[in-house]
Specification:
two-stranded antiparallel sheet, Lambda Exonuclease, Chain A, extended, 7 helices, 256 residues
């Protein structure tokens, strides 16, 4: 958290220099209705129509080219919510420091989308009306990352509610659908590559280009060679990983 805050501060300074503006850091703004509020990483002095929301991420997927507007949906929603709180905003700059085999500095922009802002406002008001009425939100499962981190008691078994059976059937149906979709995607992928023949790219009638180019993969380790050449260091540094798997075990005497 501390490192992220330091890097976000540097990202704000960098975008201010790039845009040639002065900024005011960490500004909390409450909407005129007194219900919605947002904290801005930075507001721009003399530009009431622009703000800054800095990000630091070790997951570069979902981030497009520098200068564009391709960023993860969750950040787009955050910026639109900020523009809900501050109606004079027409654009939020998103300086990002991304770690992908080394840090990269990029600058994105999120333009005002009044339709999306109205959707956020409506959902927020629905939630606020439930707060006033004392109606708790519908319970949703925690993020799977939090569930995986939960300490489990070995060999402990608990009785599940009746709806668990329906949840399992739904999960299995979704999993099967994903498998089918992946198989269909793989077939279409192969069809496109076959159409390229021995070329690395092909032009569509629209003028767009489909490419099949080499790109760097994650570094790999030859574990067999490592173990053969230096078994001591192999045993020291290589550890067997573990992960949990969700399965259905039939009851004793129950046929498949």
């Amino acid at each position: 958290m501390r490192i992220g805050n330091i890097l976000e501060d540097e990202a704000c300074k960098a975008v201010a220099e790039r845009l040639g503006v002065e900024i005011i850091r960490n500004q909390r703004v409450v909407a005129d209705d007194g219900i919605f509020a947002a904290t801005f990483d930075a507001l721009i002095v003399g530009r009431d129509d622009q703000a800054i929301e800095a990000k630091v991420s070790s997951r570069p997927s979902g981030w497009g080219a520098d200068g564009g507007d391709e960023i993860p949906d969750r950040i787009i929603l955050q910026c639109q919510a900020q523009m809900l709180v501050k109606p004079t905003l027409s654009l939020v700059w998103v300086p990002a420091i991304l770690f992908d085999y080394g840090p990269q500095e990029r600058l994105y922009q999120v333009k005002r989308n009044d339709e999306l802002i109205e959707m956020i406002r409506q959902r927020g008001m629905e939630f606020w009306e439930n707060v006033l009425a004392g109606i708790p939100p519908e319970l949703a499962p925690p993020p799977i990352a939090a569930l995986k981190a939960l300490h489990r008691i070995p060999n402990k078994t608990v009785p599940l509610p009746a709806e668990a059976e329906a949840a399992w059937l739904d999960y299995r149906a979704c999993r099967d659908a994903v498998t089918k979709l992946q198989a269909d995607a793989d077939t279409r992928y192969a069809e496109l590559v076959a159409m390229l023949g021995d070329a690395e790219a092909g032009t569509l009638p629209t003028g767009e280009t489909i490419t099949w180019l080499l790109q760097n993969s994650a570094p790999s380790v030859d574990y067999k060679l490592w173990r053969a050449n230096d078994p001591a260091s192999y045993e020291r540094y290589v550890k067997q990983g573990e992960h949990r798997v969700l399965r259905l075990k039939k009851a004793k005497g129950q046929r498949s």
